Amino acid sequence: MSTCLHTLHVDLSTPSSDRSYPILIGRDLLADESIFADILEGRDVILVSNDVVAPIFAARVRGALGSRRRVTEVILRDGEANKTMAAVGDILDAALADRHERGAVMVALGGGVVGDITGFAAACYLRGIDFLQLPTTLLAQVDSSVGGKTGVNHPQGKNMIGAFHQPIAVLIDLQTLHSLPAREFSAGIAEVIKYGLISDIGFFDWLEQSASRLLAREESVLAEAIERSCAVKADVVSADEREGGVRAILNFGHTFGHAIEQVQGYGRWLHGEAVACGMVMAARVSAARGQVPRDFVDRLVALLGRFELPVTPPEDMSVADLMASMAGDKKVVEGRIRFILLAQPGNAVIVDDVSAAEIESACFDRANLD
Ligand SMILES: NC(=O)c1ccc[n+]([C@@H]2O[C@H](COP(=O)([O-])OP(=O)(O)OC[C@H]3O[C@@H](n4cnc5c(N)ncnc54)[C@H](O)[C@@H]3O)[C@@H](O)[C@H]2O)c1
Ligand SMILES: O=C(O)C(=O)C[C@@H](O)[C@H](O)[C@H](O)COP(=O)(O)O
Ligand SMILES: [Zn+2]
Where is the 3-dehydroquinate synthase C-terminal domain (predicted)? Predict the structure, then answer.
């Protein structure tokens, strides 16, 4: 028997359509046949996972999918370096080989890499079929499984090829977090902290108070952190599904972070690690502008430090490297890089007037950063 602790909704209803979907947070959801029967009915499935996650969780999902539907299984190679068009091709080849029809559903079982690739394959297959998110990392549970950003990396930049394609549901099984390595858990915490910084300073305060219990992975604290994170994300996505405006605040720390990932080579820094460092950089620029107190940056650095997340740019990375990479960011408009800064703690703002000199002085004066 599974236990559902929280249910949220991503509201995407318009007068002409309703693509809203539920997010279920609970225990043993991945083994619950009745949940899959409700969501998928009798539909065929293309189950996509990777060579780390499948050995741990695929059997229980196969069991819950039951024996009355056709299931094609695709096992990708693990890792950010494999978030490529080739991986999308592997999924499409398998689905075509088994002659899956438009009624089939792609099911993403894994972290953000599997989810982003599978969602994009679902957006492309037969010009678009449904997909279901079964996120197994903290990062995927609080962020990537919700909101419909799907895609793959390109040597020139993160997530450069993709589509907005919403899942039909997100099932967050807290049991999956037991096997998650500590470094991956911390990477997920970075995105959790992001939500406090951009829209809920009370949540940031709570995270400071709850750090030890989060590190101990206490279920009730994890469930609350995930629920509050998904609530912020669902609200922002409902307000601006395709990032025409406010959704860009979810990119806080990412303009810097994606550049770090790309310049270092995908996979050297985890996404969440690069975002952690990027959030500190954005907070430092905000503080230099007098928008947040300097001691708030110290609080952020201390909180990230509890989770052993990086707070200074890679030693071998220059401002020139950073600026060159950020010039290709997806948020660039008419050649101007748009940054997400803090207008104040708990409140983000989008600006396009941050200079290289300002970044250098706020973030690369290494003698003054520690
Ligand atoms: N679409 C979005 O809105 C969005 C949001 C945030 C991040 N992302 C993307 O997500 C990716 C990062 O996702 P991630 O941090 O989940 O990384 P990941 O998918 O690489 O997973 C991290 C590692 O943990 C392993 N793993 C997964 N679940 C496990 C479990 N329960 N037990 C043991 N090992 C497990 C994975 O195989 C992998 O080795 C990046 O590509 C990032 O760009 C997308
Ligand atoms: O959902 C969003 O919007 C986000 O920006 C969430 C980010 O955490 C995530 O890493 C996303 O994939 C970044 O999007 P991108 O458009 O900058 O590639
Ligand atoms: Zn992110």
Answer: 188-332
